[in-house]
Amino acid sequence: MTTAMEGSVGKHPSAPDYSSPPGQLHFWLRRIHSLAGLAFGGFVAFHLTVNATSLSPAVYQQEVNNIHALGPNLGFVEFTFIFLPLLIHVLYGLYITSSGVKWNAVHYNYGGNIRYTLQRVSGLVLLVFLAYHLATLHRWGLGLIYGLTHWSALSSFPWFHMNFAYTSTVDAIKTPYSHNPWFWANILSDGLYFLGVWAAVYHLANGLWTAAIAWGLTITAKAQRRWGNVCVAIGVVVGIIGTIAWLGVTVLGKPGVVPKKNSGTMVLSAPARKVTPGVTPLNLHAYTTGIRARTEKKTLQGA
Amino acid sequence: MIAPADIKKTVKLNILRQDTPDTHPYWQQFEVPCTPSSNVTSLLRSISANPVTAEGAQVAPPAYEASCLEEVCGSCTMLINGKVRQACSTLVRKIQSGHPDEPITIEPLTKFPVIRDLVVDRSRMFENLKRIKAWIPIDSSYNLGPGPKITPEEQQTMYPLSRCMTCGSCLEACPQFTRDNNFLGAQIFSIARYYNMHPNGKTEKDARMEVLMGEGGITDCGNAQNCVKVCPKEIPLTESIGIIGRAATVYSIKKFFSK
Amino acid sequence: MAQKRVIVVGGGLAGLSTSMKLSEEGVAVDLFSLVPVKRSHSVCAQGGINACNDVARQQGYSEWEHFDETVFGGDFLAHQPPVLEMARMAPAIIDLLDRMGVPFSRTPEGNRDLRLFGGSLYKRTFYAGATTGQQLLYALDEQVRHHEVQGHVTKYEFWEFLAPVLDDNGRCVGIVAQDLRTMQIRSFRADAVVMATGGNGLIFGQSTMSIICTGSGTARCYQAGARLGNPEFVQVHPTAIPGEDKCRLMSESARGEGGRLWVPKKRQDSRHPNDIPEQERDYFLERLYPKYKNIVPRDIATREIFYICEQGYGIGGGQMVYLDLTEKATGIPYDVLKRKLGGILEIYEKFVGVDPLLEPMKIYPAVHYSMGGLWVDFAKDEKTGGLRKADPRNQMTNITGLYAAGEADYQYHGANRLGANSLLSCIFTGLFMAPGIKKFIESQPPVAEQAQTIYDAAVAGQQAVQSRLLNSKGTDNPYVMHRELGKAMSDNVTIIRSNAKLRQTLSLIESLKDRYQNNLGLPDSGLWNNQSLGFARACWDMILLGEAVTSAALAREESRGSHFKIPDELVDRHDLPLDKRALQRDDEHWLKSTLVSYVDGKATLSYEPVDVSLVAPRARNYGKVTAPATNAASAETAGAAV
């Protein structure tokens, strides 16, 4: 008898075995990734909206107070709705972006492909931005570096303080070297924030668009276009809010402003923040702790 | 139709050649006669009749796949000027617009293993058809009466899907489909949708969904939507992807709660 | 004992339906194909598939009418019992295809829609848009894939059939084939072999066929001793887009759905077709055939187009006429035709760059189908007038155990095939012959017991041919030789034939044979996916087929169906209508099938009578108006012809 497969070319090495149905872990992971993105996207929109109130330091402080009114529950809420979704979304997003994707938006420069490529690029940009954002505002990661290097300068970086939400945010975004908005490092930092805001907006809006296809909500090209317009609108709204938030704490940011308890604001008489570019500040630690100390004292006095 | 001899011109072709699957590819330039109705397969055919490079070297003619020459068989898929196309329906005058002296580049598909020159192994596509049970189950070929009635609307939805000629264009252009992963790609999603739609094809729907929701399945689609742009038969591939996505959502919920 | 196996060569409609039915009958199938079966040439069929149906039946149509039309359309050269059997099985085949999920076009109620096709006044053609062949092929491909998954069928794609293997008794017991990638040549045992390798359009250079349709499968059996039947009957389809690489078919369905052929009444009218008013157009088929109008059978439409162009009325005085699907000419809205004919409209638009619903198409006839092919037997059932079911003789060639199906055989279409009968004959032969093949292999000793030596010898023979080809260092490139052959065949052996031209072609073929044997130069001598080698081998086959076609045409001293012969002395008498120039059908002497055998390196002819036991031959002119018509159009044409 002639044997069946002898001499035949055979199937493609990567052709999977079609006899056994695969499991669905993969499917659920992808869908959870999508849900996690939605959850974190919701947080980002909320976060930017709160920060947009920084046009008025008092309102901003109030918003921050409201959030912290959750007290010990805040940690739980933050973990469940922010960090866990973020972690899932980032880890799985990295996995799918790194597992055998062949970007080709040069030869196939169609809108959809450019959006697809930007989605992945914006994700990577956001990853870098988030690391910077968390490190500078919340010292995440810096503590570790400090522990390893004992680079004293690190310990004196200003960071977010809930009781001085406005000024501490403005301080933290600016470099400790100078608050001059035209200082190169500040342009860089402000620029990174601007990029971060818009990368997030794009990633969110486009993610909403693709999620609708993935879940099977939009099917026809027409429906996808229609929902696409809604996503653009969402992007524009969140983008405007985000830009206001960005303006509020960067370009329009007034360091040292602390809202009085009930009305108006007061300006701390901070020392002139002059640091010559390229020259290491002499006593950063004293400077930042000084600010903090003064701020706390003044507020108490004001109360 | 055929242009008079006096306007006959030549065109330069840069062809990426590869002698065997394991050897390195290399470029060769040919200069071949070209008329206003020439297409890329007719240029390749004339190289076969006179396999001499632009430098005058006698070489083996480039190997390529072609059959129907009217864009229904799906054989002659290749990269022409960097983009995936059917060589038979790629008229030279159309891709040359404005740059008649620029050489046309011809390369094999990049997402499938090269056999020789422009010939690649696309058996993965056919194997995937087996995985998703791409058939309507019938009892036998004996006369058992007509099939189910189908409305004209259903037919008009199914017919374009059934025109997929397994050419591989959608997969070549898809950034998610690579030589090393096991992504099924738009071809399979669209064909699966077709069989899931048919009144008798539906009986295998659950089995298809199991495959479509596994590794390399529908969730690996990144929605770049190149597939629908490059499909030579203009099959609504992205629509099929949406439909399979919806079916997956429904099936997963159904399965979670009732199976 | 090992399971008995059947080899099917060719994966088009005939090969796939044979494989499907054999698998279903429990016979193991090895399916060989040059290309993935899904890319076979059947994919190019456009218009539809014929069968008697409930609507036509209530209008007076029947399977018998279908049979009669087919025999009449074929100018009575087809054996009648097989045609009757095919017409009878046709409705069941449509139902089967329907069950297999072919997306047939539908009526508003959800029934399968019908269209008009050549040679019939009844709507009896089922269709799926304008890509019916593709849809049918895919449906069968899927069924065979299902069998493949179940282990019933083993596919050998990218394998080329080289020769049948015959045992000492002359029974076919396997094949020699070559892997087109590794170039490995090996033998395969089989208890029966089915040739479903399609037509041979490529011997005419440009045709509507795929470039794999070299006819070499048929030709290799012919060289091994199988007879060809009626090879001189070659269908030239009236409407195709002329092209330098191939002629792209514009389906008969374009006319079935209302498309009209016309030329300007004024010679060399240089106006844009849309600017030529209705009364200045000559809808010549409607004028000449008031009953069938634009859907006269293909041989007739083709000759009328040829004639009107010969008379100088072709577009711009050349060899092209208009095929008009514009709403202005058909009265059918744009969207309706777009839906029904999308597939072919796209082809025209892609290759010509014009939307044929807005501007008339420019078309000319092109070689399309081989009515002739491997001679096959049939077993008549005296009770039914059709064929005996499950008889091993059905579709068997003169080589025991070697069968043929589809376009590769010579049965069913006689001297001219009716549109939309080819898909039917392909599927019918496959389904109908399979039980007979099963019966045959059950009656024979298993080939597993054959001595290995005959297989080894066959392989060695093919290896010798191959090494001779690989080492040929002459100057004749096979692609160039093919071009020469194609040009001669196209010029001299298609629409109009004359003995002088046929003789001239035969002498060219003689010289091609000689050059092939002595001066061939293969541009590639490698042993990995060497396409030149395959083509060089096919080139020889095509030369031999060209010889068979041309010698048979030379011998047949009459006109019948697609074979239209003009005596040498009348060839240039353009003043006479074609019918007056040509030889007439001569039933007394030529109502017989041509059989061609390959003896001593030459085509050798013999004849056998046609089974006309069911309907008597009658005159065939489709109601052509011979007297000058009263309308101005024909008056001018008639006047011009003088």
* Poorly predicted ranges of chain B: 1-6
User: Do you know the CATH topology of the largest domain in chain B?
Assistant: Fumarate Reductase Iron-sulfur Protein, Chain B, domain 2
Quaternary organisation of the protein chains: heterotrimer
Structural class of chain B: alpha+beta
Q: How is the largest sheet of chain B built, in terms of strand order?
A: 2-1-5-3-4
CATH architecture designation of the largest domain in chain C: 3-Layer(bba) Sandwich
Let me know the average pLDDT of chain C: 95
Number of domains of chain B: 2
Number of helices of chain B: 9
TL;DR?
Chain A is mainly α. Chain A is built from 10 helices and 2 strands; from the N terminus they run H-H-H-H-H-H-H-H-H-E-E-H.
Highlighted features:
heterotrimer, B: 259 residues, alpha+beta, Ubiquitin-like (UB roll), Fumarate Reductase Iron-sulfur Protein, Chain B, domain 2, five-stranded mixed sheet, two-stranded antiparallel ribbon, 9 helices, 7 strands, elongated, disordered N terminus, C: 642 residues, FAD/NAD(P)-binding domain, Flavocytochrome C3, Chain A, domain 1, Methane Monooxygenase Hydroxylase, Chain G, domain 1, 3 domains, six-stranded antiparallel sheet, 21 strands, disordered C terminus
What report would you give on this structure?
Chain A has a single domain (25-96, 105-302), classed as Up-down Bundle (3 helical TM bundles of succinate and fumarate reductases), CATH 1.20.1300. Chain A has ten helices and two strands. Chain A has helices spanning 25-52, 57-68, 73-98, 111-138, 142-149, 152-155, 165-173, 184-214, 221-249, 284-302; strands at residues 257-259, 265-267. Chain A has a two-stranded antiparallel ribbon with strand order 1-2. With 259 residues, chain B is of the alpha+beta class. Chain B has two domains: 5-120, Roll (Ubiquitin-like (UB roll)), CATH 3.10.20.30; 123-258, Fumarate Reductase Iron-sulfur Protein, Chain B, domain 2, CATH 1.10.1060.10. In chain B, 33% of the residues lie in helices and 14% in strands. Chain B has nine helices and seven strands, in the order ββαββαβββααααααα. In chain B, a hairpin with a 2-residue loop joins strand 3 (77-80) and strand 4. By secondary structure, chain C is α+β, with helices and mostly antiparallel strands. Chain C folds into three domains: 5-236 and 368-452, FAD/NAD(P)-binding domain (3-Layer(bba) Sandwich), CATH 3.50.50.60; 237-363 and 622-641, Alpha-Beta Complex (Flavocytochrome C3, Chain A, domain 1); 472-609, Fumarate reductase/succinate dehydrogenase flavoprotein-like, C-terminal domain (Methane Monooxygenase Hydroxylase, Chain G, domain 1, Up-down Bundle). Chain C is built from 19 helices and 21 strands. Chain C has helices at residues 13-24, 54-58, 63-73, 80-99, 132-149, 216-223, 253-256, 284-288, 298-310, 327-330, 334-352, 422-443, 452-470, 478-492, 499-519, 531-555, 578-581, 587-590, 632-641, and strands at 5-9, 28-33, 49-50, 114-115, 125-126, 153-157, 159-166, 172-179, 185-189, 192-195, 228-229, 234-241, 248-249, 260-264, 281-282, 321-324, 361-370, 373-374, 402-404, 592-599, 602-609. A six-stranded antiparallel beta sheet of chain C has the order 13-12-17-16-14-15. Chain C has a five-stranded parallel beta sheet with strand order 6-2-1-10-19. The longest helix of chain C has 25 residues, at 531-555. Mean pLDDT of chain C is 95; it is low at 629-642. Chains B and C meet through helix 1, helix 3 and helix 4 of B and helix 1, helix 4, helix 5, strand 13 and helix 11 of C.
